[in-house]
Amino acid sequence: MSAAEDDTELRDLLIQNLENSGVLNKLKAEMRAAVFLAMEDQERQENKTPLINENLKKCLNTKDGRLMASLIMDFLQVFNLDFSLAVFQPEINSVSSGTRLTRSSAALHREQGDVPNHR
């Protein structure tokens, strides 16, 4: 076996190991979040008007829409999907009408009886 073949085999084993342990997917998610946040920072520095998703804006202007977004954020936090949350929060809060959505928003809805508490 040549050195190039050894390197290829080692690389393939390393990739397989990283995929099986979940490390590779976590790194990919972290990179996607970093790219999104860097693009958002660049837009902010250039004072560009952010792109607004009108359908999302309409949804978040309703009580059910805000509840749904809060539940998604709750899900991402409970299952430690931090990089997905890092992308989701700025996208949601950039179009919500002045209401900052937080994980506690879902808890508030549960306390008001809007959502059954399954915990």
Automatic annotation (TrEMBL):
Region (Disordered), start-end ranges: 96-119
Skewed-composition ranges (Polar residues): 96-105
DNA-binding listed as a keyword: no
Chief site of localization: cytoplasm
InterPro entries cross-referenced by the UniProt entry: FOP_dimerisation-dom_N, LisH
Extent of Basic and acidic residues compositional bias: 108-119
UniProt keyword list: Cell projection, Cilium biogenesis/degradation, Cytoplasm, Cytoskeleton, Phosphoprotein
Limits of the FGFR1 oncogene partner (FOP) N-terminal dimerisation domain: 48-95
Cellular compartments annotated: Cytoplasm, Cytoskeleton, Cilium basal body; Cytoplasm, Cytoskeleton, Microtubule organizing center, Centrosome
Similarity annotation: Belongs to the CEP43 family.
Oligomeric form and interacting partners: Homodimer. Part of a ternary complex that contains CEP350, CEP43 and MAPRE1. Interacts directly with CEP350 and MAPRE1. Interacts with CEP19. Interacts (via N-terminus) with CEP350 (via C-terminus).
Physiological role: Required for anchoring microtubules to the centrosomes. Required for ciliation.
Protein known as: Centrosomal protein 43
Native species: Characodon lateralis
The organism's taxonomic lineage, starting at the top: Eukaryota, Metazoa, Chordata, Craniata, Vertebrata
